[in-house]
Specification:
This protein is an all-alpha fold and about 160 residues long. Helix content is about 75%, strand content about 0%. It is built from 9 helices and no strands. It has helices at about 5-30, 35-60, 65, 75-85, 85-90, 95-110, 110-125, 125-145, 155-160. The longest helix has 27 residues, at about 35-60. The protein starts with 5 loop residues before the first helix and ends with a helix.
């Protein structure tokens, strides 16, 4: 095949969500000594699992014809770039909550959501579903800061909370 397809895009998108889930689960363990921070990362891990389920369902519900449609080259490039992101290595380099927060910010505000947005826009069952999923995605990104426990809203406080 000389071009990439939607099926080629959905697979990496699922892997990205699963990788993000694993990263957030690792962050849960690194901050197990602080229950409110553990809960914060747990929430993010669950949301990533939900994103992966939606993508898996999307793939299962799509016809062979839909899956063989040409994929947007830029979006596929974004997905491939995210797969190359060394999440395991980044997780090993987390010394404090600020490090974890910055990694999560990078993941949530860059290519990961560009891939999800593309799939929602082009392949959600209907407009209502697309609007709902887009809303959930926006809330997911906003919650990164707004749901962070209030005591850790400042960079100084996040740097002070050491990882295990």
């Amino acid at each position: 095949m000389a071009y990439s397809t939607v099926a080629d895009l959905i697979g990496p998108a699922i892997q990205i969500e699963n990788t993000c889930q694993a990263l957030y689960e690792g962050m849960e363990r690194k901050f197990a000594h602080t229950p409110e921070v553990t809960s914060y990362w747990h929430h993010y891990a669950l949301e990533e699992a939900g994103h992966a389920r939606w993508l898996t369902d999307l793939r299962a519900k799509s016809t062979a014809e839909q899956l063989e449609q040409k994929a947007d080259a830029d979006i596929l490039l974004h997905a491939q770039k995210m797969l190359k992101f060394a999440v395991d290595q980044a997780g090993k380099n987390i010394r404090n909550l600020e490090d974890a927060y910055q990694i999560a910010s990078e993941l949530e505000n860059t290519e990961t959501n560009a891939v999800m947005e593309f799939l929602i826009t082009n392949y959600a069952d209907n407009r209502g579903t697309a609007n709902f999923l887009r809303s959930q995605l926006n809330v997911h990104m906003t919650n990164l800061q707004s749901k962070l426990p209030s005591v850790y809203q400042s960079k100084f406080a996040r740097e002070s909370l050491k990882a295990l």
